[in-house]
Amino acid sequence: MRLVILDFQTSEGKEREDEINDNLAGIYRAMKKHPSAMANARKTCSIWQAEGNESDHYMINPNSEGTPVIVYCDMSTSPATMVLEHDHMDTKSLVGPRCDFEACVRSGPFSYFSGSKDRLLEIISASRSCQQHVRYDCFNSGMDFTRWTTPDDRTRSYWGGYPKGEYSETRCGCFLTGQCTNGQLCNCNNGINFDNQWHVDEGYIVSETSTTSATELPVMEVAFGRFPLVKGCPTAPRHDNSINDASGLGHVAGDVVNYTCSEGYESEGSNIVSLTCRGDGSWESKTISCQRVNCGDPGTSNNTNRALNGTRYGDTVSYTCTSAYKYESGDRTRTCGANGTWTGQILTCQPGLVAFDARGTGSSYWNRAGAVKFIDDLNIGDAYSRVTGLFTAPFQGLYHFESHLQRYGSYTVYCFIRVNNVRLRVIEVDPYSSYPGRGSASLNVQLNKGDTVYVDNRGTGYHIRFNTFDSSFSGLLIQHGDGNN
Length: 485
Known about the structure:
This protein has helices spanning about 10-35, 35-40, 45-50, 115-125, 175; strands at about 1-5, 55-60, 70-75, 80-85, 90-95, 105, 130-140, 145-150, 155, 200-205, 220-225, 230-235, 240-245, 250, 255-260, 265, 270-275, 290, 305-310, 315-320, 325-330, 335, 350, 355-360, 365, 370, 375-380, 390, 395-405, 415-420, 420-430, 440-445, 450-455, 465, 470-480. By secondary structure, it is mainly beta. It folds into 4 domains: about 1-225, Jelly Rolls (Sandwich); about 235-290, Complement Module, domain 1; about 305-350, Complement Module, domain 1 (Ribbon), CATH 2.10.70.10; about 355-480, Jelly Rolls (Sandwich), CATH 2.60.120. The strands form 11 sheets. Strands 27-24-35-29-32 form a 5-stranded antiparallel beta sheet, with no helix packed on it. Strands 26, 28, 30, 31 and 33 form a 5-stranded antiparallel beta sheet that branches. A hairpin with a 5-residue loop joins strand 8 (about 145-150) and strand 9. It is elongated, with a radius of gyration of 43 Å. Keywords: Disulfide bond, Repeat, Signal, Sushi.
């Protein structure tokens, strides 16, 4: 990796960098598309070397798991050296304003051609040792505070040739020998290097491959800056339900961090709020308020019950069919999504089974005038009420009803089956009847929604035997609708 830091760059230089990266990327794309290359892998570059191969790109798979990866095997060393190539292999010119007042130049994330970061770390962990050569040349560019990031986003300030460690200042290999320009920590942060001369810092960053500690390599990003008079800001503030583009390398005065609402959240004002690191080392104070997206009313349909706990992102609505109705289509539970719409479809219900079977309460007799209040053992559709003794039609249809009554002692039974208070059937048992004290009646009738049917006791002088088994009232739906649909 070679980085050239300067205050200008020609278009020809930029085109050359792009051409080199395109050529390397093309090699990797071609090998990945070639079936024989993907199927032909070795555990390490050393095995390819032992088989008599020359330096080139090869497939390796150190743990025999996952997809093989492409690396460059340098056969000029013994054992062979595995090289992980990336898009900063050649000279990379980074251009920016003079950095006297802010850390203004970043390399951008490195893209390693071999594979994902996790796959690279697997390869490195299987290696005996790992090192990465870095070099940067500076020309009229102050780079007092140079940082690079590890695969797990830790910030490091030691450079090629300097031992691993956590340091508050940039340190380079020349400092160990006392040969840095003007006695500084690195050649490119000598403090007076706007002198129309090139300065260079280079060497190997060495990382152990122990299983007990995280590897420092490969380098994932580099940032340069000279800001001796500029204060740094603490970590960018966090705001609920938002994300930001803060750099893991930190920020100094003049840096701007942009905030946007997290998925499923929205701002009442601007979609993007920016905070600036101020000259005193504090962040600009602004209100960043992200509220859950509002999906609005989820709606409902006829013959459904709805339980709604809110209309914002993550809230839910539950539907159930009302009494005497059953599931037809749609979703019983819907959720307000991040895009501001409800998942699924509104539940719809269709007429279901209606049936009831009611009996006496267990007392000796019933002699109150009006609707006889039987106790229901079966009540599908909840159309019968033991409180009122009335059956109420939940929808239009043809229904069947019947009642069986037994007299109490020598008393007379004189009752009616009424529909909307109109007498349609009579049940009469007098004490002189030769029948065994029991009378019955049945009825098939077309009802509209809301019509009522009940057994009516004519008066207090009439006694119905009302223990558990002797008297009953039952009904059921024969067909929904008016019989023609």
